[in-house]
Each structure stands twice: as structure tokens, then as C-alpha cells.
Design brief:
- The chain has a 5-stranded parallel β-sheet. It has a 5-stranded parallel β-sheet with strand order 9-16-10-11-12, with helices on one face. Strands 21-22-25-24-23 form a 5-stranded antiparallel β-sheet, sandwiched between helices.
- The radius of gyration is 31 Å and the shape is globular.
- Helix 15 packs across helix 17 and helix 24 packs across helix 27.
- 30% of the residues lie in helices and 21% in strands.
- It contains 29 helices and 40 strands.
- By secondary structure, the protein is an alpha/beta fold.
Length: 848
């Protein structure tokens, strides 16, 4: 059998991994031996989202490499073993470990390295660069023990990312930028001014127009204590991060005699071949034929595709790339695209600036009205559409594309305005026509990879995909849940029957409704009960008939027909006396007892007729309903916080209890979970909750839209360093805005991704009151808090409500004979038929 040709990839970053995927897509991993030499101790990860590590994302979650992919394609991946010598004559690569590989084709994807200005003291203890996960781990470890103040050298993309990281670590943070404005490459003077106002408003100190002259340390090799700046001032700091740009890593190419650019970068042709036809270079280490070294991931991906095509004898060239960028820096949307600085002859600017909101928009328009480029700061929602229109004449006047709603009657361009060949995903060069060849977002991502890069195009892709014509809640109503909420609120409709008669579809009016709309409308009426004058208790009058089984009996139905009992334990804090009561109740009624992940104690196995007897004892002991059965607030989990923990910076238990008692019983489109962590160590896992709170030295950070489950999602940072009052006010607004606009059974995570404008829109509404709704949202929450009553306590006081808690109407005291239990581990479990596969029963257990 002939030996397969060997392909060696030097470097395994984002571009290197994309190259491997491009090889696999063409079947080249089946016909070639593929060897990868990776310098870092971990495989490729998402360097674009590196800073998300400081908001809770783990290195594993940042990974772009599927171990199964590597194994399936037989790729030989050597971690922590970089190439150190390449002999072009013998086509041999020697790695640090001594491994030698002879190649038929060699691809250099060595990336770039951080530029550290040659200033005295740059090697002092406490000086770092910001490039790899290992850099982040080192910064985090040093900051915990040795720093209260940090300074970042560089105010560009990476510099502001690094500043956000230091701020997230609780450090007083300074940014030093030599240019007269922040992000000088991406934004102009106006955009830089808007960015500066917003960032300084977040508490960062920004020093522009000055350079770093010296790092002052305590003796030779000692720890950093200050920075001397070019204007003669001195800045006290304990930690310095150099993030003043990157340089192509081309030393290996220089050593092997390959041609390099005058300012660095391995010179390549339109096929990404170096001066040696057997050697290719891709990504940040390469200088393209246009003389540029591209520091963005999208051009690197295109280079990776070009080389894979060349190796597969396919056509393909790389002659240049789009330099458009969109990102969120310190919570601020910043985007630039096309000829952002107006370098073309005869071009004109259309500018909108609002310093109050921190919004700046500039479009660069050619002499014939064609859109050449633009800059967006503070509001970049239109980025994907505008970038796709670059080079063409927009269908509306440019000023209509930058003015906010209500100012000049702007036209919001829809996807229909884009031509079929408009590039929707610049990371993977996917056009509108290619997107619309598929029906769903997962299908688009799988087949075209659009939306899997920086993610800025996902919202536009969603608008390009087929939309259902009928958005009605169900067959009974032509309205969405959000529309029904507004109808109930505005018209003060307190009855499901009245709502159906007045606003139901033809044929549904006068009927009984369905299992979809009845609980949804029941939840709406319950959440608005104090405002619209409805009966507040879920078992009152018509309300009782709208509830599903769980709400109908104020308990969770289990698989064998029994129910669970879940008393509220705010913040997980419980007295010994109350613990004893729970134990006695569980013992006396023979219930299975389980401590849950939500810091509660659940009691399982109660028969329906036992529920009032159990709750009578619990209510008498001071417990109330934990609403484990309802689409409502479940728990507010907490760590022990500042009171007990040596790392705690705020009293997380006090805050968790306060929040849980404030929002208990709040009916919502879906269940709500929350948590409060007393420090950045995040022991309460607040970023996996619908609303989570993390303590800082200056107050509280509020995160929203997280959840676990089958499709976990990290919460997004809504606001930082809030006082107690500010925190509660923003949560009030967020929850009521969610309840008002979400769909039926839609968690906050999916709601936040679906709602037009996403997190930016929610922040505008909740924090900045862009729609003028905040007073109303706060009033609705105040009504809820003022009128809250424990559902079980009220039920026990009402003989009519208690009549429903029977297994058989004609034999109220008879238990259901089908609800049976068997012993297991000194407790009980449901006595259910054995599960089976074919004719073989699955018997026994792990402990039997």
C-alpha cells in the first residue's frame, strides 16, 4: 500500500482549527496523514470571546475543538509541543519534544504575539500580556492576592477587552492610549468621544494622548507600583496589562528562509503559498498579496478555506478581506464596516450623535449615493444589514438609517432590501441566497457555518428564515401571549370567558377554550390581579378551572400519582426548629425527603387527601408555599456571603432572602430561578439563572437570561456596581417587562434571544427607560408585593377550596389504591412496573 502524503499544521488556534474542518469537508483527512503541532497546552479555543472567562465561561466552554472530531478524522494533535526547526531541504519539522515529521505540505498558522513597548520596567512582577487563557489565569491569580488597581497599556479592541477583565476582577482600572481617542483604528473622533463618555461612566479612568514611559517597580525584579506617563504624570497601579497591539509570529519562517513583509508577516500569494511552494501560511502570521496582515478571524477563515481548496486541487483565491467588526466592549456595542473613515474621493458623511445615550452613528456615502462604510457606537443593531448593503445604494435616504425611532420617521430596513449575493456572515462568507436555502437556524449553522463565528449575523439570519404567518397563541386566539397581556391590562378584563368572547377567533367565542390558552391566560390574570381587580387566588372561581394539574392542587404531580410538598426556604436559610418540623412531617406521613439543588427540602409521596394535613403543620410552623408547582419564582439560591466566608464582599444571604420574599408568588410565562453570590467566585451559580446577582466591592452586578437544562445559557450582564435600591428597581423592571412581552412557556433565556434588539433593547427599556414604561413596570411590581398572600395558608382557611383535595368525590376519605410505594435506602420510592427492553426486565439498582 502506498504511504499517504503527510500534511503538517504548525499552530492550532481558531484559524488552524477552521483549516482542519475545511480539510475534513473535502475528504482530505481520509487521503492524508494530518499532524498538528500546538504550542499551547490546550486545543483551539475562541480567542474572540476570551474575556467571557471573567464573566463565568470556563476554558472548556471556550473550546472550539471536539475531541470526537479529532479522533474521527485521525488527526495527530500534539499539545504543548511547538515546531522549533524546519528543514526545507528534507521537508522535516522538528518539535520541541524531539518529534520529527516529514511533510509533503506544510501550513504555518502560528498567529501573532502581543507587542510590549520597550519601556523600562516592562518585565517587573505584575506585568502581563493579554492573549491566551494562560495569560488570563495568571492575571486572575495575581489580582486576587496582590492588586487593587490595574492599568492597561492600549485602548484598542484588545485593550478595552483587558480593561473589562480587570474591572470584572474588582480592580480600579485605568486605560492608557497613545492615540487621541479610544479604538483609533475602528472609530473616528466622534465615535471615540461617545465610547469615552460611556466607558468613563462605568467607572474606568481613561488617559488618551499619552504614552507609557516607564513601569516603576519596588527594586530590580520587584512588584509594580506605578506607571510614568509621557505627560509627566505618574499613575499608581499594582498590575499592568500590555495590550498595545499584536505582531505576526513569523520567526519560524524567517529562520527557514521564507520571504517576509517589510513590516513583518510571511509573504503569500493569492493561494496563500509562501516563497516555498510546499509551504502555506494562514491567519495573523501571513501577509496577503494586498500587503496587509489581517488581525481578524474572518480573513483567517477565508485563508484556511483557500489553502484547503488548493490542496484539493480546487479553485480559490485570497486577495483581500472585509475588515468589518462588531463587538461588545464593557457592555457597549461598537461596530465599523467598509470605508469607515471616509478615505474614498468625494465621499460624504451622515452623522447622528446623542451624548446623553452614548449613541453615535456615522455612514459614509459615495458621490452616487452608494453606502461605503460606517461606524456605530452604543447602538449597533443595524450592523448586519448595513454591512450587507455596503457597495450598493440603499433603498432609503441615509439619514433614515441612522435616526432613532420617532426622529424623522426612519425606515427600518428589512431583509428584503438585501440582494441575494449580499454577504450575511462575513466570518464564513455566506450570502443571503445561501442562508435562505435552509429552513431553520440550526440547519443554517450546520450546513453553512453562518452564525458560528462572531455571532453578529445571527439576528439577521433569523429574519431571513421562513416565518409562520399565524402568530396566534392557539386555535382560540389570533393574538400572541404578549398581545393578550396588553388587552387584559388595558381593558381590565378579569375573566377568561370575557376575554375569549371579546377577542377569541370566530368559532371559539362562547366555547371553553383549550389546554394551551387556559393556563396562559390564567397566568396573565393572576399576574395582573391587583391591577385589574381579578380574584387573586388560583383556586378562586373561574381561575380554578384554568389551572393545570399542579396549580389545581398546589403541588407537583409525580409519576405514580402522588404529590410533592415543597415549603419555601428563602435563601436556603432555615432554623433548627423548622428543620425539626420538616423532619417530623416527613416521618409522620412517610414521605421521601430530598435536599435539592435549589437549596430546598422537597417531600415526596403525599397523597392528594394528605396535602391539607401536611400543609396545616408546615404553615403553623411558619412555612409557606415554595411555588414548585407554578410558573412562578422558585428559589433565590445563595452562598453564605460576607457574613461567614472569608472571600465574601457583600451579604448575599440577606439579599437572597429579600429578593425571594419580594418576588414570591409572581406568576410568569415560565418558572423563574435566581441566585446571589457573595463574590466573584460565584458559588451560588448566579449566571445560570433567569436573574442572578454577583457581589462586587462596590455593590452588585445584575445578570439576566441564564438557564441550565438541555440548552444551557450563561446570563448576560445587564448592569454593574448597583446599590441595593438600584438592584431591586432594575429586577422589578426586568421581570415585569419579561412577563409583559414573553411568549407562553418561554424562559427568560430564549425570550432574550428572540426579542427584537436582544439584550441591548432590554437594557434600553429597563435601565434607560427608552419606552417610558419603567414607572408602570415598577407600579405593577409594587401591586404584586403589596397584595401577596400565601396560597396554601389561604386555602387552609377556606372549606370550599379544601373540598377539592380528595382522590374520589364519592369517598372523600378513601386513598387511591394505585398510589403505592416500596422501601429503598431507608425511605420510599414509587412502586412502578419494571421497565423493559424487549423481553428482558431491567431489575436491580446500583446499590442493590
Amino acid at each position: 500500500m502506498p504511504t499517504m502524503p503527510t500534511l503538517v499544521l504548525v499552530g492550532h488556534g481558531m484559524v488552524g482549527q477552521r483549516f482542519l474542518e475545511a480539510l475534513a469537508e473535502r475528504g482530505l483527512t481520509d487521503t492524508h496523514r494530518v499532524v498538528v503541532l500546538c504550542e499551547e497546552p490546550r486545543p483551539a479555543y475562541d480567542r474572540v470571546r476570551l474575556t467571557s472567562y471573567f464573566s463565568g465561561r470556563t476554558p472548556d466552554e471556550l473550546s472550539l475543538t471536539d475531541a470526537e472530531f479529532i479522533a474521527r478524522h485521525g488527526i495527530e494533535l500534539h499539545l504543548g509541543d511547538p515546531a522549533e526547526h524546519i528543514d526545507r531541504a528534507t521537508r522535516t519539522v522538528t518539535a520541541r519534544s524531539g518529534l520529527q515529521v516529514t511533510y509533503d505540505a506544510l501550513v504555518l498558522a502560528t498567529g501573532s504575539y502581543p507587542f510590549v513597548p520597550p519601556v523600562p520596567g516592562k518585565d517587573a512582577t505584575g506585568c502581563f500580556v493579554y492573549r491566551t487563557i494562560e495569560d488570563l489565569l495568571a492575571i486572575e491569580e495575581y489580582a486576587k492576592e496582590h492588586a487593587t488597581t490595574g492599568a492597561v497599556v492600549g485602548g484598542g479592541l484588545l485593550g478595552l477587552e483587558a480593561a473589562g477583565a480587570l474591572r470584572g476582577l474588582g480592580l480600579d482600572t485605568h486605560v492608557v492610549e497613545f492615540a487621541p481617542r479610544l479604538m483609533p483604528v475602528q472609530v473616528d473622533e466622534g465615535g471615540g468621544a461617545a465610547l469615552l463618555r460611556t466607558i468613563t461612566g462605568l467607572g474606568l479612568s481613561v488617559h488618551t494622548g499619552v504614552g507609557t514611559q516607564e513601569i516603576v517597580a519596588d527594586g530590580e525584579g520587584g512588584a509594580v507600583r506605578a506607571m510614568k506617563l509621557s505627560d509627566g504624570s505618574e499613575l499608581a497601579t499594582d498590575l499592568v496589562v500590555f495590550s498595545a497591539g499584536v505582531r505576526p509570529r513569523d520567526q519560524l519562517a524567517r529562520d527557514m528562509g521564507l520571504a517576509v513583509g517589510e513590516r513583518g508577516g510571511i509573504a503569500v500569494d493569492e493561494r496563500c503559498r509562501t516563497s516555498d511552494p510546499a509551504v502555506y501560511a494562514i491567519g495573523e502570521c501571513a501577509q496577503a498579496v494586498d500587503g496587509r496582515v489581517y488581525g481578524l478571524v474572518a480573513p483567517g477563515y477565508e485563508m484556511a478555506q483557500t489553502v484547503a481548496a488548493a490542496l484539493a486541487s480546487e479553485d480559490g483565491q485570497f486577495t483581500g478581506a472585509d475588515l468589518s467588526t462588531k463587538l461588545k466592549l464593557l457592555g457597549v456595542d461598537v461596530a465599523s464596516f467598509g470605508d469607515a473613515h471616509g478615505a474614498a474621493d468625494g465621499c460624504l458623511d451622515v452623522v447622528y450623535s446623542d451624548s446623553r445615550s452614548g449613541t453615535y452613528k456615522k455612514l459614509v456615502v459615495g458621490p452616487e449615493g452608494e453606502l461605503l462604510g460606517g461606524i456605530l457606537v452604543g447602538d449597533a443593531d443595524a450592523y448586519a444589514t448595513l454591512r450587507a448593503l455596503t457597495g450598493s445604494v440603499p433603498p432609503v435616504a441615509p439619514e433614515q438609517l441612522v435616526l432613532p425611532a420617532g426622529a424623522g420617521a426612519p425606515v427600518a430596513l428589512g431583509p428584503e432590501a438585501l440582494p441575494g449575493d449580499a454577504v450575511i456572515c462575513s466570518c464564513h462568507n455566506v450570502t443571503k441566497d445561501a442562508v435562505q436555502a435552509h429552513a431553520t437556524l440550526p440547519e443554517v449553522k450546520k450546513c453553512t457555518k453562518a452564525g458560528t463565528g462572531c455571532g453578529s449575523c445571527v439576528k439577521l439570519i433569523g429574519r431571513l428564515l421562513p416565518q409562520s404567518g399565524d402568530k396566534g397563541l392557539c386555535g382560540c386566539f389570533p393574538h400572541t401571549r404578549a398581545e393578550l397581556y396588553e388587552i387584559v391590562r388595558v381593558k381590565r378584563i378579569a375573566s377568561y370567558a370575557d376575554l375569549l368572547d371579546a377577542h377569541g377567533r370566530d368559532g371559539a367565542r362562547g366555547g371553553e377554550g383549550c389546554e394551551v390558552c387556559k393556563p396562559a391566560v390564567g397566568s396573565i390574570i393572576a399576574s395582573l390581579a391587583p391591577t385589574i381587580g381579578a380574584e387573586g387566588h388560583v383556586l378562586d372561581g373561574e381561575q380554578a378551572a384554568l389551572q393545570d394539574t399542579n396549580d389545581h392542587f398546589l403541588a407537583n404531580l409525580q409519576k405514580n400519582g402522588s404529590y410533592s410538598v415543597v415549603p419555601r426556604i428563602p435563601g436556603g436559610e432555615v432554623t433548627p426548629e423548622k428543620l425539626i418540623v420538616i423532619g417530623e412531617v416527613a416521618r409522620d406521613f412517610g414521605l421521601y425527603t430530598k435536599i435539592t439543588g435549589g437549596q430546598r427540602i422537597d417531600l415526596f409521596g403525599a397523597r392528594v387527601e394528605q396535602l391539607p394535613l401536611i400543609w396545616a403543620r408546615l404553615v403553623d410552623a411558619g412555612f409557606e408555599s415554595g411555588h414548585a408547582y407554578g410558573k412562578a419564582l422558585r428559589t433565590v439560591k445563595s452562598c453564605v456571603g460576607q457574613t461567614w466566608c472569608r472571600y465574601g464582599v457583600q451579604d448575599s444571604v440577606r439579599m437572597a432572602i429579600g429578593l425571594e420574599l419580594r418576588y414570591r408568588g409572581l406568576r410568569a410565562p415560565h418558572k423563574l430561578k435566581s441566585a446571589v453570590s457573595g463574590c466573584g467566585r460565584e458559588c451560588a451559580e448566579a449566571q445560570s439563572k433567569d436573574f442572578g446577582v454577583i457581589a462586587t466591592a462596590n455593590g452588585w452586578n445584575l445578570y439576566v437570561g441564564g438557564n441550565g437544562g438541555a440548552t444551557p445559557r450563561h446570563a448576560d450582564l445587564l448592569a454593574q456596581d448597583l446599590s441595593d435600591a438600584e438592584l431591586v428597581r432594575l429586577i422589578d423592571r426586568f421581570l415585569m417587562f419579561y412577563i409583559r412581552t414573553a411568549d407562553r412557556l418561554e424562559r427568560t433565556a430564549s425570550w432574550l434571544e428572540r426579542i427584537e434588539g436582544g439584550l441591548g433593547h432590554v437594557r434600553d427599556v429597563v435601565v434607560h427607560d427608552s419606552l417610558g414604561l419603567c414607572d408602570e413596570l415598577e407600579a405593577l411590581m409594587a401591586d404584586h408585593v403589596a397584595h401577596y398572600r400565601d396560597e396554601w395558608a389561604d386555602t387552609l382557611d377556606d372549606p370550599e377550596r379544601l373540598e377539592r383535595f380528595v382522590s374520589f368525590v364519592n369517598a372523600p376519605d378513601a386513598p387511591d389504591p394505585l398510589v403505592r410505594f416500596v422501601p429503598e435506602r431507608d425511605q420510599i420510592k414509587p412502586d412502578l412496573p419494571l421497565l423493559s427492553i424487549g423481553s428482558r426486565p431491567l431489575e436491580g439498582s446500583l446499590t442493590s
